[in-house]
User: Fold this.
Amino acid sequence: MGDNIDTRAVGLDTALALIRWLTGAENLHYGLWTGLEVNAGNLRAAQDAYTDLLFAELPPGRLRILDIGGGAGETAKKLIALGHQVEIVVPSAYLAECCRRNAPDATVHECRFEDYSGTGPFDLCLFSESFQYIPMMDSLPKCAALLTPEGHVLIADCFRTDAYLGRAQHGPQPGGGHRLSSFRAALLSNPFDVLTEQDITDAVAPSIDLEQGLYNVIGTGFTQAEREIKARKPLVHWGLTRLTHLFLSRRRRENLMQRLVEKQRNSEAFRTYNTYLMTKLVRSRPKSNDG
Assistant:
């Protein structure tokens, strides 16, 4: 039967339900933990601090914003409340529906950014933890075509450091994204200048510890339940194991168990293999031919 379960959709649904229960909002992004104890009770405060820092980088005035990879629409809702006009590009049907619910005044485009056919012009293209999912050499030129002559791009996301040598060498590690060196090179070959850049790796890294702690709590319950079923109901255990093998590949089973019972994904590993940048770009002025 193969991999018939859409584990990404299940994961998104579960994550949003949990975050909504913990915080009352559907923010899928990292938190900014400076000055905060790392626990579930402070998750909303940490995520709000992240949003405040992100919004501090917005250009002045009321903006027409293209929110690329807009998550569940929470950021768009806050931007609209500040008086901005927002369009969201999101490829997931489930997240698109969340966006329509959370930000009913936003225009939602259910497609990949590569397939987006809007014409703009926009004052700002926003990537809040979505830049890593889009081919970099396509995204920057497309933003340039969609922006006003002096429009901005705001990118807040993880980039891989040179320390990361791939899954074969290090296994699954937290974070992700484009190579930082590749990003630097792409900026040189596209019509943008860097206005500001903040490295907030240390401030967001504790989010990984909180996430992993939650997985370990779930893993403790799961492994104890499996042990009891195997001891007391071996035939039931055999049947459940066979059913799991039908729907999840060996690689996915191994990755899931690693997330549930191990602690390789932590803030120290995040800092080693990732740099988290908040980068504001502006369209370059055409170079004068005078002189």
Remarks:
- The first strand starts at residue 64 and ends at 68.
- The radius of gyration is 21 Å.
- The chain has a mean pLDDT of 85.
- Residues 206-232 form the longest helix (27 residues).
